[in-house]
From TrEMBL:
Pfam family, one: Abhydrolase_1
Source organism of this protein record: Candidatus Chlorohelix allophototropha
Domain AB hydrolase-1: 38-277
UniProt KW Aminoacyl-tRNA synthetase keyword: no
Protein name per Swiss-Prot or TrEMBL: Alpha/beta hydrolase
Length: 300
């Protein structure tokens, strides 16, 4: 089920990097946008394309084309038995750009999507005009998996109703303020079964493979930063997901600063005060407006 606001994107399926792989996408804004005004959004580890709606509405009404998609194993995209690693995700991202005949675009990645953005920019520098990393892209702190445990624990389970599923996150520390963007994100996140129960679309086996491969890639991420030629903006959430915001950071101040300093194309890091790993993406107030202003200025 897809829940949309008054700003309607073009939805469809793009070809992935391997035969039979389809990537569900939403294409917002003018189709004739220039490379400077074309952005591709890459979401996080258990997320989906609806998570970008709060950004998409703002960008589309400002003349930007914003293409977002479900990573393989998530949302409405294909769910093959394997291929959940930064290399394969980058192959899919390249295939997505080729599908839309986009030679070069701005890449905006959140969480795992930021790590994909780092890998893609390092290996395909000619395809990336500007890079924006939202709360990710550096080696992960030791408590990362604990911090996002609630998102991971839902996978592979069946919930008695959609309301029960939504209540799991309404009661979580992830979203101090619940809004329609968050509700729509989680409504899209599930399959509604005939008996009224719901099951997350995101495949548990895919995320288990993803975790394993990410842990093995940790020591290489910092090396990849030195190969990024695109000017890069790093936006970091200041509130952690553990210990009342004092711990559970996905991107630490030290990790953010080291990443910015090592990018030869030019890196700049800015803290987004009062946001956590999730609200930096799905806030509908001052946090979103600050992020949007910083992103559009970077792209100009």
């Amino acid at each position: 089920m897809t829940i949309r606001t008054i700003h309607q994107p073009r939805n469809g399926f793009a070809s992935g990097s391997h035969p039979g792989i389809k990537l569900a996408y939403a294409d917002w804004g003018p189709v004739d946008a220039s490379p400077e005004k074309t952005i591709v959004g890459v979401h996080g580890i258990t997320a989906n394309l609806i998570g970008w709606d709060a950004f998409a509405e703002k960008l589309a009404t400002s003349g930007y084309r914003f293409i977002v998609y479900d990573l393989r194993g998530r949302g409405e995209s294909s769910k093959p038995a394997n291929g959940y690693d930064l290399t394969t995700h980058s192959f899919d991202l390249r295939a997505l750009l080729d599908y839309f005949n986009i030679e070069q675009a701005n890449v905006l990645g959140h969480s795992l999507g930021a790590a994909i953005g780092v890998y893609f920019s390092a290996h395909y520098p000619e395809r990336v005009r500007r890079l924006v990393l939202l709360d990710g892209g550096a080696p992960l702190p030791s408590d990362t998996w604990q911090a996002i445990a609630r998102s991971l624990d839902r996978l592979g389970k069946t919930f008695p109703s959609l309301e029960a599923y939504l209540s799991l996150f309404k009661a979580s520390p992830y979203f101090p303020t619940w809004n329609d963007y968050v509700a729509n994100y989680y409504k899209y996140d599930v399959i509604q079964n005939q008996d009224g129960t719901v099951t997350p679309k995101c495949q548990k086996e895919a995320i288990m493979e993803e975790q394993h491969n990410l842990n093995n890639m940790e020591k290489y991420l910092s090396a990849l930063h030195t190969h990024i030629k695109a000017p890069t903006l790093i936006l970091r959430a200041t509130d952690g997901l553990l210990d009342n915001g004092k711990a559970g950071f996905i991107l630490t101040p030290d990790g953010s600063e080291k990443m910015a300093q090592s990018i030869p194309g030019g890196g700049r890091t800015i803290d987004i005060n009062g946001t956590n790993h999730f609200t930096i993406l799905m806030d509908e107030g001052q946090g979103r407006d600050e992020v949007m202003s910083l992103v559009t200025k970077h792209l100009e």
